[in-house]
Amino acid sequence: MNHLLLELANTRHTYRKMINLYWATIILTVMLEYLIHRMKSGTTPEYFLSTLVLQAIGLAVATGVTEMLYRYRKVQSDDLLIITGIIYASSIIYINPTIGIVPAIYIFPILTSMLSFNKNRILLAFTLVLLCFGLLYTLTPELRIAMQPIHIIGVLFLYIGVTIIALSITSSGIELLNNLRQATEAKQELLVKNIIMDKLSKMDALTDLYNHKTFHEYLEKLIEQNERNQLSLQLAIMDIDNFKKINDTYGHWVGDIILQRVANLIKETVTPNDFVARYGGEEFAVIFTEKTLEQSHRLVEQIRQQCAMTLHTELDSQAATLSIGLQNYNKGEGKEALFKGADASLYAAKRTGKNKTVIQSVMIDHKGA
């Protein structure tokens, strides 16, 4: 049985309903048998009342064991349900042996076994029913007298027929659930592929940062939030100094390593509420949210200083420095003004010596720090 069938068999609400049905059956059985015996002649009231009480107690004990195991031990045993059903059916047949049709009630545990979606369990229920019927027939003279050979053949055909139907329904159910599982797995695979493709369309393959297109989409949404909810927002554009010289001198493979290391440093420094993207060849963009301009400035300075102190063996133990332009967003300015301000600050940092941060064209010179 596959995982889906096991889950269905072990966690279904049907188990609770079956136990409730057993409790209700005790009441119905006692009531019906009382009415049947009332209509009979030759039976003393004291005798059949005591018999009904003993039967009710026995059925309550069997059901109580199932109830306790389910409620306090979390046991959901299909075998236990089947055995309880056989006890119910056997007690009813034993109390009413003169009613020729009553052995038909043994189909109840066979039908109960269908809940397991297990053919072997259905065959087990069928085998137990045959054994119990044979035992009752042997030990109960009244049952032998009441049942003619044609009745026995009819009852056996009934057991066999119900078992065949149960097996057929189970086979159809298993096939249906297998088809459902395959369809679910196919849908999950497609969902995973779509998620991967969506991520690939948004991410830069080299640095595992968001790409240029996603950066602009996200920036537009954050600006809309700022306009509606006064969300604090700053944009930093970072550029690796002399990156073309690094590629020309040490090779593009070294340039790729530097890009990855700088990207990792930025990701590790910013907070989860910030958005980091690779904007261009050696340029990175960071959108800071829920921070003051001073807090964002401290973060970009931490990134710049760490880059300046990190020596790379691929660069003959030299550092790759960053120039940074930082711009605060003011309500109503729009995306273009924000980006142009950050870009102008970056240009000012580059023009005045590099390895520094410029905020809104006001230089914060920490060169050499």
Reconstruct the topology from this structure.
Elements: H1 3-11, H2 14-39, H3 45-73, H4 78-95, H5 107-113, H6 119-139, H7 141-146, H8 149-202, H9 212-229, E1 233-240, H10 243-250, H11 252-269, E2 275-278, E3 283-289, H12 293-309, E4 311-312, E5 318-319, E6 322-328, H13 335-351, E7 357-359, E8 362-364
Concise structural overview:
With about 375 residues, the protein is of the alpha+beta class. It contains 13 helices and eight strands.
Task: List its traits.
six-stranded mixed beta sheet; about 375 residues; alpha+beta; two-stranded antiparallel ribbon; about 65% helix
Question: What do these coordinates show?
Answer:
The chain has 369 residues and is of the alpha+beta class. The chain is 67% helix and 10% strand. The protein contains 13 helices and eight strands. The strands form two sheets. It has a six-stranded mixed sheet, sandwiched between helices. A two-stranded antiparallel ribbon has the order 4-5. The longest helix is centred in the middle third of the chain and has 54 residues, at 149-202. The chain is rod-shaped and about 115 Å long. The model has no long low-confidence stretch (mean pLDDT 86).
